[in-house]
Amino acid sequence: MSLAQIDLEEFIGEIIESSTSQFMSECRELNGAPPFGSFIKTAGALPVYGLVFNVCTHSIEPNRRATAYGLTEQELREEQPQIFELLKTEFEAVIIGHGDDRGPQQVLPPQPPGIHSFVFPCSESEIKALTSSGDFLRSILCGNRLPADDLLIASVRNAWAARAFDMPYLVSIGKDLCRLIRDDYDRLSSIMRRISN
Amino acid sequence: MNDLWSNLNGSPSPQKSGEIGVVTRGSLTEGVEMKLNPERSVEDVKAGKFVVIDGYKNQFFSMITDLTLDATNPEILLYPPHDGDQLLHSVLNGSSTYVTVALRPMLMLEQGEEIVDESRPVKTIPSHFSKVLEAEEEDVSRVFGSEEKDDRFFNMGTPLDMDTPVCINLNRFVERSNGIFGKTGTGKSFLTRLALCGLIKNKKAVNLIFDMHNEYGFRAMKEGGNGSSFVKGLKQLFGNQVALFSLDPESSRERGIQPDHEVYISYDQVAVEDVIALQDELQLNPTASESAYLIYAQYKNRWLRQLLSLDGPDVEQFAEDIGANKSSLSAIHRKLKRIENFPFMVNKLEGSDAVDTMMDYIERGIHIVLEFGRQTSMLAYLLVANILARRIHEQYVSKSEKFYATQNPEDQPKHLVITIEEAHKFLNPATAKQTIFGTIAREMRKYYVSLLVVDQRPSGIDEEILSQLGTKITALLNDEKDIAGVLTGVANASGLRSVLASLDSKQQALVFGHAVPMPVVIKTRDYDEAFYKAMGYLSEEEKMEKAEEASAAVFGD
Predict the structure, then answer these.
(1) Distance separating alpha carbons of residues B496 and B498, to the nearest angstrom
(2) B68 and B102 Cβ atoms separated by less than 8 Å
(3) B211 is in which domain, residue-wise?
(4) Which of A170, A171, A172, A173 is the mutation pick for testing B, counting most B CBs within 10 A?
(5) ipTM of the modeled complex
(6) Cβ contact (<8 Å) for A167 and B8?
(7) What is chain A's mean pLDDT, rounded?
(8) What is the Cα–Cα distance from B205 to B475, expressed in whole angstroms?
(9) What is the pLDDT of residues B394-435, one digit of tens each?
């Protein structure tokens, strides 16, 4: 999808750290991170597609921590509105593919996404293209520091939802997963049960 | 959603043809294994089914011999997905739990090659992941020929779940002795009648049928269906081409049949060999034959008449006279006395000898059914069949020797097929070496005589003879020994064993051997009006119509 078609005003974050396999973005708004396990992309000539695996909110100053006030958020906003300006939300994504003139490819990008690129949620058609085969499962299972099982569950649910909860799709993904986790039956049954619930 | 599930677990009505799996492993000796396509339900794949493996260079025509449920992980088998968990069930199906199907390649043809007369054994196996397809109509006719192609081919039935006829090659069928086996009530006599019809219709051989239970000549009972009904016999189907001989004319007449000939046998026509063949039935001990030969040495052809004319006390004296063991001779005397009770045994023949009449018919190409009427004792059957077959065989030997000498095509004897039932009585290991049927089964077609052996207890037949049978048509057999017996002399029999044991008890048979290029399970052809018609039978109205047409053609309207 070309840059022109993206409404730049719709961005949800901006990249602040980038590597070939993962990137980190800062949210446009506090607590405005995309949901865990959702599919996101960067803008640019070569869009990069990722899967959100970690969201965190903390002080903007690395050496300072937020302090507990013992007030509700509403009370805080009325009494100490400035403290919210001192916080930021960041989210990390694992890269599962990039786009070229043929559309989304499930291959790592030749270059990591650029710092300060904007990040957008993926459209339904992009999600379908990225999850047409079970290859994205492999990226999840092979990634470092990832909560693999929960990320699998969340991402497969999203992919399934993009297909209007089509059962044969879930079954075929289940078969791929079964092979990838090397017939770990307990793990498979737990994952499949949590996806379908 | 239920529809979805049923689709995932193999569609209930799969397409008629298509890929059913891929080859995953195999060996030339053990056969090939295929992984079943997960979209297929294992329950649609049956043992005995005819499939084609589409190799890179060759097509392998194969039979399904076994099915196995497998799992990659033993834990799945310990904790199977519970009943409601259809998702997990579907996910596992085909990935962690799968079905392997054992195939036995039976025939190999190069892609596009036509089958030639001589079938060739499979010499290689298909490569990895070759597709396994359900056989299509053209595959069946390519392998088994079709009736339209040639009069060699005779339709015996159809493969399982298919409608294309499977034909046997009658030319090859008559080249050897053949066997038809099956438990009681599995349709042996229907199979036999079918094979005989083929031989008669296509004029491949002259038949002599020892019809112990009166089921081939005229009508016969048909089991099952709505009560019992009758089916037409050979005489009704083929009219003048079949002659009915009877040992018990009274019984024939009571059944409303007029036999063409009555058969009587004189005592002088009984040879010692004929009595030896009765060893089992009469429980004669081995010395009995020696005693019989002693009498024969002195009295020649009259030996039996002489023996039976004696009364109790004279036997011992007689034994002393001829130098035989007293107790042995009195035993054989006592036991052979039973023969006197048979109404067809006469002192002197009136009219022509039955064997001469039979030979006359055979030379004219007319098939003979010998009915036993009420003479259904095994003793009568064995005695008569042995005497007649021995004498006919003698004549055949001299005729064929004459032909070998003159090499004049006119002298060539007509090929004769002798059908015997309860064959294990004739061909058991103890007597097969001495009786005429053993000789015929072994010497094959050298003298233009071969056997069609019908039996329910093949394990009772001498192994040497079983292994020499060319084509075997086998309905269901359960007994391990019988199955092993039928498969004697068959290479790679292990696969056929399971197929044989899993046949339906009605209208299914495994055909293998000389007359078919590869073993095949068939649903036997229906023996009904359509069959009668195919055999050229005309009902009364049709005959009238035909006659009218003919007279119109001759005399004009």
Answers:
(1) 6
(2) yes
(3) 169-259+350-526
(4) A171
(5) 0.80
(6) yes
(7) 89
(8) 24
(9) 888 888 888 989 888 888 888 899 999 888 888 888 777 777
